[in-house]
Amino acid sequence: MLTILSLLPLLILLSCLLAFKMTTGRAGALAVLAAILIAFCFFGLDLLGLTVAMSKGMTLSLYVLLIIWSAVFLYQLVYEFNAIDVINQNILIFIKDPFTQFLLLAWLFSSVLQGIAGFGVPVIIVVPILIHLGFDPLASVAAVLLGHSWSVSFGSMGSSFFTIALVTGLEQQSIGYGMAIFDSVAMIMMGLMVCYIYGKWEYVKKGMVYIIPTSLVMIFVMLTVLYLKLVSLVGLLTALSGLITMYLIYCLQEKQRKKVDLYKGNLTLAKALLPYSMIIALSLLFQGFNLGKYSIAFQYPAFVTGLGYEVAQQSAYAKIKIFGHPAPIIMLSATAAILVYKQSGIWDREKFKNVLNRTINSSASTSTSLVFLITMALVMMDSGMTTALALKVSEITGGLYPIVAPFFGVLGSFITGSNTNSNVIFGKFQVDLAAALGVNGFIMAGLQSIAGSIGVSLGPTTILMASSASGLTGRESEIYKIVIKPVLLTALIMGILNYLLLIVFRLNLGGVL
User: DSSP string of 144-172?
Assistant: First the structure.
């Protein structure tokens, strides 16, 4: 009974979005209401627990909304002052083939950005570029959501990677090797999915000439960087090596030898790229300094539900680092862009008013939806609903659990919108089940993190960022319909591989089970 009740908020959310085609705001409102009622009536979450869980939802929403509003502001700024046009025209000069543009930007350039910044920044930056190059908005959103998902777990300078090691207590490098096994599958699958979105099976075949050699290079770089223990740089260097490899393959195919002249409008390419260059530079710079003490965080007490589920105290929840959170970095970059526009003589107050108005219009409805969805996630987590669901599924599947395991990683990211949070919820759970089955915990931990990585493309927060960046607000159900099948198919393939490695071949990674 409790298992069915645990599923109910998610079923309501999915049915409202996919079957009844409601807006995300309405679907989220119904789902969070169901979660609150079920948690209070059946899971023993009293008024204190509800207050804490819902407050956590608000503070976590603030963390994400700061990113959305600042990123949308930056995009509207570069669009209004034609910087985006300069970038697009130069992309057309260097890469003339539309399919290559689409694949390189959605699969690899977005992954480079994920390696540095993460937190939705790849979606906010790359989706508008694709749209302004003339690609369909819905296809652009789906391609970027899927295309960069393989890089999430090693991205954001390794934040999710560090988390899975912390929550499981396992040695970091061996977990990394376990992740690399499944990430190899994910990067190839997501490259193929981007090709399919562009032009169905014809372009899947055409894309093989890029995807196979590029993926082999990325796998080699990934394993090398892991061997060298440069953990924070795994995502960035892997994706960057892929970007360079694919571009070189394109140049060899096209036999491009002649020198090209860059397009220059009111801005040079360097000035047009300045805010994005600054995002990369500041992200790397702040990573190198110990500035974590300059932050805003929230404290929440521990409590126990009526069913005995214990929720730990949070002393620094949803910490917003002044010199590390994406929003301050994005706003500093936007400020630099404004100064450059003034120096270049193209500044216009009326245009800036347009920037502010469009930022408000495109972000306001997204904000309400996001608060509902994150609050639902926190109520489910703090009431024990998520744990109850996981335990029941593991009990039912028994020895076949390794096939089902990746779906928990996906579920964690779908509920919370975060690979890191998925690892927090299910990381230790997955390793404990591996021990109970007598199989290798490093492989199971690696699977969890990469499954959570691809699941981020289904996360409500990521979907809402994508709809805001593309002008598809209110059409989130259409995005879900395209994205959900590739994610579930990839999770199934990883689950079968996990079963073969753990049960059939009894692979022993890290020297221990």
Answer: HHHHTGGGTTT-GGGHHHHHHHHHH---H
